[in-house]
Structure formats: structure tokens, C-alpha cells
């Protein structure tokens, strides 16, 4: 499959994806991710690359923190949307259409962000190896991955569907309905192993939405409840066993010097 064939299905779902951004669970996701990124950003960091930038939400956060951001995505429609949003926000972010499998850059970056992208590529470990070549020594990679364990929990608790929970136990493939895309979830162990093989050392592991996805949706639209849940999630994101069952794993890995 070529890059433009791979981009195809992502290209068609920009508006649907953008509409989801108004949901409280999207808000919770980005608030948690930004708080976690905020913990690892340092004043010496100057440049950031985002791979599979989607709608550019994280790009704008990083640019607001003073970083020179380059946003990339395989789907031209995502890049166009993100560039428009950045311009409207008055943020100078560089955008390029690029496949994470083959992307090459002239200068190494202080930070590379790859959030919820490896699920859709054929060779995730190859993407990490490729990204590692664009990271400066001691630079950080922020990697977010779907957690297969959380999918079993969600089926059993939130959906109250024990049959589906059992079926998901040994199933890594899932369907990302928002973009009508088949995807694959990886275990924490696999991700840590790839990072290690690519010369990156895991320095932080955060859980993202540890218990939130197990709670019925009804209270999630109440802003006061949302704030309480955010406080709880921030606390649980660094604690075992909550971080291990979170909907997403957020790993911060440092490139060995
Ligand atoms: C679920 S979205 C995540 C967007 C963004 N990282 C975020 O967290 O808001 C996945 C994105 O990865 C992009 N993508 C998928 N395969 C890619 C590849 N091989 N190279 C670059 N981007 C890719 C898609 O076009 C889509 O925008």
C-alpha cells in the first residue's frame, strides 16, 4: 500500500474527528496529556516534531509553550485543517504531509510526539527506529498507545458485555470507528521493548484515563464533575495498578547520549 492509499481513509474523516473534539472525553484526554507533557518539558527544549498530528491540538499546545513546532501527518486534509487552526490562533507552526515510516528531517528535534498513531502503521517498531534518528541525544519521545487491557475492562464494565470482554482477551485488532480504520493495539511490554531496541530509555509512564472510561457517560457533561474527575485522573495516572489499566499508555523515553 502506498502512502497516499494509507492516507485515504484518514483524509475522509476530518470533520467527524473534529466534531468528536467537543466531547468531554476528548477534553479529558488532552487535558491529561498536556499536564503530563508539562511535567517533562524543560526551558532548554526549543523544537518539537509531531508525527500523525491529526487536528493539530497538541501542536498548538506545544507552540503556546514556546517550542518551534513542526507538525506532520500522512493525510493532507489533517495537515490543512491543522495549518488553518494554527493560523487562526496566530501560532507559527510548520506543517508537512509526511508518512511516519519514511519521514526525514534536516535537524534533530528536542521532543518528538507520536500519539495514537502506531496503531495504524504496518511496522510500529520501524517507525520508532526512524523517529529516533530525528531525535537529538538526550531528546525525548512522547509516545501514546491504546491499551488492549483497557478494552477488555471497558467491554465488561462500561458496556456490560462479558461475551465481548472474553473475545477481546486475545484480540489485538480493533476497529477505530471514528475513522473507519482497522487498527492494532500493543502491550506496554512490547512498546518498552521497541524503545529499548531503538536506544531510548523509558523515563516516565503515565496512564491516561485510568478509570474514566469505566464510568457511565451521564455525569461527564457536568463541568464541576469533570474537574473532580480530572483531579482524580491526574493523581491515578502515576500510580500502580491504575496506570496499567488506563485507556492509553503515555511513555516518555529519552534518547541515550
Ligand atoms: C487517532 S489520530 C491521532 C492524532 C493526534 N496524534 C492526536 O493525538 O490528536 C491518528 C493520526 O495518525 C495519522 N497517521 C496514520 N498513519 C500515519 C503514518 N503512517 N504517518 C503519519 N501519520 C499517520 C492519521 O492521518 C491521523 O491523523
Automatic annotation (TrEMBL):
GO terms for molecular function: 2-polyprenyl-6-hydroxyphenol methylase activity; 3-demethylubiquinol 3-O-methyltransferase activity. Its EC number is 2.1.1.222, 2.1.1.64. InterPro entries: Methyltransf_12 (IPR013217), SAM-dependent_MTases_sf (IPR029063). Gene3D superfamilies: Vaccinia Virus protein VP39. Residues 49-141 form the Methyltransferase type domain. It holds the Pfam family Methyltransf_12. Keywords: Methyltransferase, Transferase. The keyword Membrane does not apply. SUPFAM superfamilies: S-adenosyl-L-methionine-dependent methyltransferases. GO terms for biological process: methylation. This is Class I SAM-dependent methyltransferase. It comes from Tumebacillus lipolyticus.
Amino acid at each position: 500500500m502506498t502512502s497516499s492509499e494509507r492516507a485515504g481513509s484518514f483524509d475522509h474523516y476530518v470533520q467527524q474527528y473534529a466534531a468528536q473534539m467537543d466531547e468531554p472525553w476528548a477534553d479529558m484526554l488532552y487535558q491529561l496529556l498536556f499536564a503530563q507533557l508539562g511535567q517533562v518539558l524543560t526551558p532548554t527544549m526549543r523544537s518539537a516534531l509531531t508525527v500523525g498530528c491529526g487536528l493539530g491540538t497538541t501542536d498548538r499546545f506545544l507552540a503556546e509553550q514556546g517550542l518551534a513546532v513542526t507538525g506532520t501527518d500522512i493525510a493532507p486534509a489533517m495537515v490543512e485543517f491543522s495549518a488553518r487552526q494554527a493560523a487562526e490562533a496566530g501560532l507559527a507552526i510548520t506543517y508537512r504531509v509526511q508518512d511516519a515510516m519514511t519521514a526525514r528531517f534536516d535537524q534533530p528535534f528536542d521532543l518528538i510526539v507520536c500519539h495514537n498513531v502506531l496503531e495504524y502503521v504496518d511496522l510500529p517498531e520501524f517507525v520508532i527506529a526512524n523517529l529516533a534518528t530525528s531525535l537529538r541525544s538526550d531528546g525525548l519521545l512522547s509516545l501514546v498507545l491504546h491499551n488492549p487491557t483497557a478494552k477488555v475492562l471497558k467491554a465488561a464494565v462500561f458496556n456490560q458485555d462479558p461475551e465481548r470482554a472474553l473475545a477481546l482477551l486475545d484480540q489485538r485488532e480493533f476497529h477505530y470507528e471514528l475513522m473507519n480504520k482497522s487498527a492494532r493495539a500493543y502491550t506496554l511490554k512490547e512498546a518498552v521493548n521497541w524503545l529499548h531496541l531503538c536506544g531510548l530509555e523509558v523515563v516516565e509512564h503515565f496512564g491516561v484515563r485510568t478509570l474514566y472510561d469505566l464510568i457511565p457517560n451521564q455525569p461527564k457533561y457536568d463541568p464541576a464533575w469533570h474537574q473532580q474527575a480530572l483531579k482524580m485522573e491526574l493523581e491515578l495516572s502515576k500510580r500502580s495498578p491504575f496506570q496499567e489499566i488506563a485507556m492509553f499508555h503515555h511513555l516518555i523515553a529519552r534518547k541515550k547520549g
